[in-house]
Design a protein that fits this description.
three-stranded antiparallel β-sheet; DUF7455; 74 residues; DUF7455 domain-containing protein; alpha+beta
């Protein structure tokens, strides 16, 4: 019997862009083949019903859309 460890994907950053429109990505879909797709919140909602059941991992950080940035320490 072999056990395969699955690492949690890294958090999405400002440089991660939606594959459909180029906006900031908040959702990552990792496919069983190992490929990944990145989506903004809008496009993630548009494809979620069809794509989520096929994805190995559905990483959703859309809660970050309304997060307020921490003030900088002076």
């Amino acid at each position: 019997m072999s056990i395969t460890a699955v690492a949690e994907p890294a958090a999405l950053t400002l440089s991660d862009r939606c594959d459909r429109c180029g906006a900031q990505a908040f959702v990552r879909a990792i496919l069983p083949s190992g490929g990944e797709l990145l989506f903004c919140g809008h496009h993630a909602r548009a494809v979620e019903d069809a794509l989520r059941p096929q994805a190995s991992v559905w990483q959703d950080q859309t809660e970050d859309l309304h997060a307020r940035p921490e003030p900088a320490d002076d």
